[in-house]
């Protein structure tokens, strides 16, 4: 195999091994010679992140058509096939390139005071007292590498802790002393799986909002299911490959945003989250959703763009009677497929009504603005 490609084998007594050239990579695949071009594209989907309908396969200068078999096209053992990807038809964040490039997080530094080498902020007494009185600890965009020790002195008086858009590398167990905390914003930092103390987090029994987006998480541990009061969970732009089954314990959850990860599986326990109103799973590696999605009777918005989905749970439109936003851009689920679902008519009416309301709101808003401008 050239270039460290990936092997994907389908057992068949009459199989052939071919090499697919894509973005500087060589992908080795073993497949039956009677496979169709469409079958080959489906095999390539998880290896390249390119949806089948966005793939163009070329062999000996000829564009291969989906319905024909490799045998009919004289694609033999050892053949080399070129793959070209159409712009925009990708699952996840896009095609898997030769070398993964991390996306830098822009962090504007608004604190005018210079930091020392450890980036530990000295908190004056007045500021600490203000935190205790207001219950709001605001340290976003402060160029922090560590959480100042003075924060823990707030203890049960803290309700909101915002340390977003810094360079925090550790959330210690001491976070558990902020026992009355309702809102914890940790997005846009340098947190990894091992640097977060979930033992401390799970003691925050009043936590309603938790934001861990734009970090380096690859998994959520079982302890996160103990955040029983959680209503909003933001874990987008990490490296998560799945949502754990403990999501089903968050029965008060209303918003789940886990877009731009590497998630390939959603547990059936998601059906227990019947309070959920909005779910964003766009730009992941999903090929299917569990039927339990039909249990989300309060669901209003579901974002699934840029995934490898080719079907949806059959009860989704029938049971989710408040659903009015369903984003399926750059998936294999077409409008023709949706029209076959039970409940399509009612969903389509809700969708059109919401769209019209948005248009009306924009028209009214622009009219008021114009009138105000005329008066001046």
* Largest sheet composition: 9 strands, parallel
Rg calculated over all Cα atoms:
25 Å
Question: What's the number of helices?
Answer: 6
Sheet/helix structural class = alpha/beta
Strand content: 15-25%
Distance between the termini: 71 Å
The 3D shape can be described as globular
Helix content: 10-25%
* Low-pLDDT sequence parts: 1-12, 98-122, 367-376
Write the layout of secondary structure elements.
Blueprint: E1 8-9, E2 15-22, E3 25-32, H1 37-48, E4 55-59, E5 62-63, E6 80-85, H2 125-134, E7 136-138, E8 160-162, E9 183-185, H3 198-201, E10 209-211, E11 232-234, E12 255-257, E13 278-280, E14 301-303, H4 316-319, E15 325-327, H5 335-339, H6 344-375
């Amino acid at each position: 195999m050239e270039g460290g490609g990936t092997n994907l084998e389908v057992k068949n007594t009459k199989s052939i091994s071919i090499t697919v050239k894509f973005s500087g990579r060589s992908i080795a695949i073993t497949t039956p010679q009677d496979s169709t071009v469409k079958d080959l594209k489906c095999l390539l989907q998880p290896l390249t992140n390119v949806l089948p309908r966005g793939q163009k396969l070329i062999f000996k200068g000829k564009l291969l058509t989906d319905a024909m078999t490799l045998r009919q096209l004289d694609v033999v053992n050892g053949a080399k096939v070129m793959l070209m990807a159409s712009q925009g038809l990708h699952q996840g964040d896009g095609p898997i390139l030769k070398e993964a490039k991390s996306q830098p997080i822009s962090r504007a530094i608004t604190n005018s005071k210079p930091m020392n080498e450890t980036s530990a902020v000295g908190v004056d007494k007045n500021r600490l007292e203000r935190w205790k009185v207001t219950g709001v600890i605001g340290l976003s965009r402060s160029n922090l590498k560590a959480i100042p020790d003075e924060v823990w002195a707030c203890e049960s008086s803290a309700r909101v802790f915002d340390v977003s858009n810094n360079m925090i590398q550790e959330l210690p167990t001491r976070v558990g002393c902020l026992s009355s905390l309702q809102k914890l914003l940790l997005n846009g930092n340098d947190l990894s799986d091992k640097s977060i103390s979930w033992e401390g987090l799970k003691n925050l029994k009043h936590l309603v909002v938790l934001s861990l987006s734009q970090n380096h998480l690859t998994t959520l541990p079982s302890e996160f299911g103990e955040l029983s009061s959680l209503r909003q969970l933001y874990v987008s732009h990490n490296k998560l490959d799945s949502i754990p089954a403990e999501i089903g314990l968050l029965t008060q959850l209303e918003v789940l945003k886990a877009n731009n990860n590497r998630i390939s599986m959603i547990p059936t326990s998601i059906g227990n989250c019947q309070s959920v109103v909005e779910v964003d799973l766009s730009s992941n590696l999903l090929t299917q959703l569990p039927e339990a999605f039909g249990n989300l009777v309060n669901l209003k918005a579901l974002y699934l763009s840029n995934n490898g989905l080719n079907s949806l749970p059959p009860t989704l439109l029938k049971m989710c009677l408040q659903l009015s936003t369903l984003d399926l851009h750059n998936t294999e689920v077409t409008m023709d497929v949706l029209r076959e679902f039970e409940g399509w008519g009612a969903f389509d009416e809700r969708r059109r009504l919401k769209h019209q309301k948005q248009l009306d709101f924009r028209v009214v808003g622009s009219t008021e603005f114009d009138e105000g401008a005329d008066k001046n």
